[in-house]
Structures are given as structure tokens and as C-alpha cells.
Specification:
There is one protein chain. The protein is an alpha/beta fold. It has a domain at about 55-85 and about 200-360: 3-Layer(aba) Sandwich (Rossmann fold). About 40% of the residues lie in helices and about 15% in strands. The chain has 15 helices and ten strands. Strand 4 (about 135-140), helix 7 (about 145-150) and strand 5 form a beta-alpha-beta unit. The longest helix has 19 residues, at about 30-45. It is globular, with a radius of gyration of 19 Å.
């Protein structure tokens, strides 16, 4: 365990974009610490603990069981606030919200997120901590246990059915409507495209890995919307990045193949770009990475390319094998989504003796 300050938002505050409000003279460091501490105290009152540096485990027994020759470390987020890494992203968003309020900027009271799982629970914990109303937009098939938890946390759950002729995730589309100008709710999600500060909070995972692990050759990180891999990679800039998706939902890899080999950034940013398009009928045992679009695909693929990595599409057999191995050879109660990055390592093993990090990110609620 790292010594010193254990709240990552305080430990690494000078490396966060939101700290620029301090360096610009809008608030003092003391005010920043007070804001973070107050939000964290509220989170602890709701969840039982606040944000703390999470463990990096030696994964050699897991690697040996899987027949891997690389040195493996496991960053464990399954026991974090809300039961996953998602609340880290949202904590960054909320800190920025509180800073803007402190300097006199008016902000909507109501918050909104589109999610069917961990992101929604993380958002509900933080919203409850500050007594803020939260709308959660979920698909019709949302898990009953997740919805029950959201109800207990006081969130307003909106089940979203697909409208005739509609493309894309209906829950996300309803979220966009709720957070459109004049609609009255602020985006409180984990997509950088809608909530830019979500990357900032997630970077604390990478900062911790860099400090805990020392040199890292490669990161294998599961991808749904893309914020986790994008944010973590910012904190471990010297590592090759391998974003991992399942064969039943791999829009990121498809975009990579369409975009390369020139990787024209201007073309990718055009409204009529045809690189990233919705995946039809997403399916996988790793249900939490079934976003039909990888929302943060541009910064994610740019970081992947410049790092020397590439997207990995894990066969379903490896998605299931990763989950089974994790439960057989570690003590982490992690879900199938949370082990999907490890499935990428099983699909494309790293060279012998390289140091690789995988993330076990979500608690197994089954």
C-alpha cells in the first residue's frame, strides 16, 4: 500500500485538470481540499467508505494458471465506491461542479446519466451524498437488482424503449434529450463526449498504477464507452495500450480498421464520419461492455496508435475463461465485464517477462 494521503483526488490533485482552477487563482488549494473532503465525507456516509487508493495485486498465480509468460499485475476496482471504477469518473465531474459553484457559476441541480449498471450506481451514490436529484435512463431489460439499488439510493429510474426507426441506444438518446440546452438537467455520465471531466477523475487509476507498479510495458483494458481505457492510459503514458472488446460487440476495432492506416484525425472528427457506427445486436457474457458505440473512440484510438498498441477482439470463449480463472485463482469478487481486459491478454499474450497490468473493475452482483 502506498504511504501518505490515501484519497486519490487529493494525492494527485496537482496532476488533475480541475486543479487548474487553483493554479489560475480562482480558488485556493485549501478550498480545493475542503471541497474534495466534503464530497468524500458525504460519499462515505452513503456507501460506508469514500475514495481511497485501491490495491495493485501480484497476478503471477493467475498468469501461471492461464499459461502466460508475462509478469501480470491486477489493479482492483471492484471494491471501490459503488462497486466499480465508475464512481471515480463521476467524482471528478462532481468536484468540478462544486468548484464552479464556489466561484459563483450557476449550475443545474438535477443530474442525469444513461447506464444499466455500475455507472448508474456510482452516480446515484454521489448524487445522494450531496442530496442532488438524479435521473437514470436505462434500457427496458435493465437488471432488477441494479434498479432496486438505484431506487434505494433515491434515483429516478426511467426505462427506455426503442422508438420506431431509431438507431443507437435508446437510453443514451433519452439522456441526450434530458441534458439538451434548456432541458434542466446536467450531464453526469461517464462518456467524455458529454461530460469532459469524466476523464479527469478516471486518470487517478492510471496515476496509482504508475506509482504502485513502476515500469509497465502494456495495459490490457476492457472497453465499453471508452472512458476507462482513455483515462487510465493518460496516467501510464509509457505503456502500450490494448483496448479489449468482445467479438459480439466490437465497434472500436471496426473503427480502427476503417480509420487506418493514415489515421486522419480531421476526417474522424467530421459529423458525417463513417468510422465509428452503431454495432447491430451487441451480445456477450461481459454485458457491461455492450455499448453499441465507443463514445470516446477518437482519443482512445489516437492513444492506442501512438502507444504502439492496437485493439483486441476477444472471442467469447476467452471472455468466459477469463472470468472463471479470476474466480479460481484470485480472491477478487469480480464480474465478467470486470475481467474482460484479462480476456484480451488471453487472446493475445504479451511477450515473456514483460510487465502487464489488467484491471478487475466491477463487483460480481450475481
Amino acid at each position: 500500500m502506498l504511504s501518505g494521503e490515501q484519497n486519490p483526488f487529493l494525492r494527485y490533485r496537482e496532476q488533475l485538470d480541475i486543479y487548474q482552477k487553483v493554479t489560475a487563482g480562482d480558488i485556493t488549494d485549501e478550498q480545493f481540499v475542503e471541497i474534495v473532503s466534503k464530497v468524500d465525507e458525504g460519499v462515505a456516509a452513503v456507501w460506508g467508505h469514500g475514495f481511497r487508493v485501491t490495491p495493485l495485486l501480484d497476478g503471477q498465480s493467475l498468469a501461471q494458471a492461464a499459461g502466460l509468460e508475462a509478469r501480470v499485475s491486477i489493479k482492483v476496482e471492484a471494491n471501490n465506491v459503488g462497486g466499480s471504477h465508475k464512481a471515480r469518473h463521476l467524482m471528478g465531474v462532481m468536484i468540478f461542479d462544486q468548484i464552479k459553484r464556489a466561484i459563483g457559476s450557476e449550475q443545474p441541480e438535477r443530474l442525469a446519466i444513461a447506464s444499466c449498471g455500475n455507472a448508474a450506481i456510482g452516480a446515484a451514490v454521489i448524487a445522494r451524498a450531496l442530496d442532488r436529484p438524479l435521473d437514470v435512463f436505462v434500457p427496458e431489460w435493465a437488471d432488477a437488482s441494479v434498479v432496486s439499488t438505484l431506487d434505494e439510493l433515491g434515483a429516478h429510474v426511467n426505462r427506455c424503449e426503442r422508438r420506431s426507426g431509431e438507431l443507437g441506444d435508446p437510453a443514451y438518446l433519452r439522456f441526450r434529450e434530458a441534458t439538451s440546452p434548456g432541458a434542466g438537467a446536467a450531464a453526469f455520465g461517464v462518456q467524455n463526449t458529454d461530460t469532459p471531466m469524466t476523464i479527469d477523475g478516471g486518470k487517478t487509476i492510471g496515476f496509482e498504477i504508475a506509482e504502485q507498479a513502476g515500469h509497465v510495458d502494456a495495459l490490457y483494458i476492457q472497453v465499453g464507452g471508452g472512458a476507462l481505457a482513455t483515462a487510465t492510459a493518460f496516467g501510464v503514458p509509457g505503456a502500450r495500450l490494448y483496448p479489449v472488446q468482445a467479438e459480439g460487440c466490437a465497434p472500436l476495432n471496426r473503427a480502427w480498421e476503417r480509420w487506418g492506416p493514415e489515421f486522419d484525425l480531421d476526417a474522424a472528427q467530421q459529423l458525417d464520419q463513417t468510422f465509428m457506427t452503431p454495432w447491430d445486436n451487441p451480445t456477450s457474457f461481459a454485458t457491461g461492455i455492450l455499448d453499441d458505440i465507443t463514445y470516446d473512440w477518437i482519443p482512445l484510438l489516437h492513444r492506442t496508435y501512438t502507444s504502439g498498441g492496437h485493439p483486441i477482439v476477444a472471442p467469447e470463449v476467452e471472455i468466459k475463461r477469463a472470468y472463471a480463472l479470476a474466480h479460481e485463482h484470485t480472491d477478487v469478487n469480480v464480474c465478467s465485464t470486470g475481467t474482460a481486459g484479462f480476456a484480451g491478454l488471453l487472446t493475445e499474450p504479451a511477450p515473456v517477462n514483460e510487465h502487464v497490468v489488467v484491471l478487475f473493475t466491477g463487483i460480481d452482483r450475481s
